[in-house]
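User: Predict the complex with uridine-5'-diphosphate.
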Amino acid sequence: MRRVTDMEKTLVLLKPSCVERHLIGEVISRIEKRGIIISGMKMMQLDENILREHYSHLVDKPFFPDLAASMMASPVVAMVLKGVDVVSVFREMVGVTNGRKAAPGTIRGDLSMSGSLNIIHASDSPENAEIEINRFFKPAEVFDYTPQDLKFIYGEGEI
Ligand code: UDP
Ligand code: MG
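Assistant: Here is the predicted structure with uridine-5'-diphosphate placed in the model:
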């Protein structure tokens, strides 16, 4: 039996620029089609406190007030994704920060024209993913089920 318990996890936020533009389904569809497991998902209204933590590397930047406001403009959809090497695999799917520079085929490269309102957040390392998952999810909100199609998503020995 393949086990998903120890698979890598990443934290994703579908930003207000995604929610307001009715792109939630489009992004979730790409996640499901890739074979990435959705282990947790909920809608949240973010506030200044959680954003100062989440974007602590950017709080001193002049654009931080605009960034915080854009992240509070509507609820976000928070997700925990699971997969082999999912942090780097999903960052590749997201594309570079500026939507205008992101490669076609990526989420930002297909859906965004902005360096700030760029649809989506995804953790940039497994260490940060763990911190970010704990920031946005309680343990009971992350589910450890094993999808039945997993044997068609990974080959023998890949998990
Ligand atoms: N951001 C911005 N202007 C910048 C750089 C970043 O508005 O010059 C915003 C943008 O929404 C970005 C977020 O701050 O997604 C976090 O920045 P980071 O450098 O961590 O980029 P990411 O990991 O999201 O690609
Ligand atoms: Mg980042």
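The longest strand covers residues 37-44.
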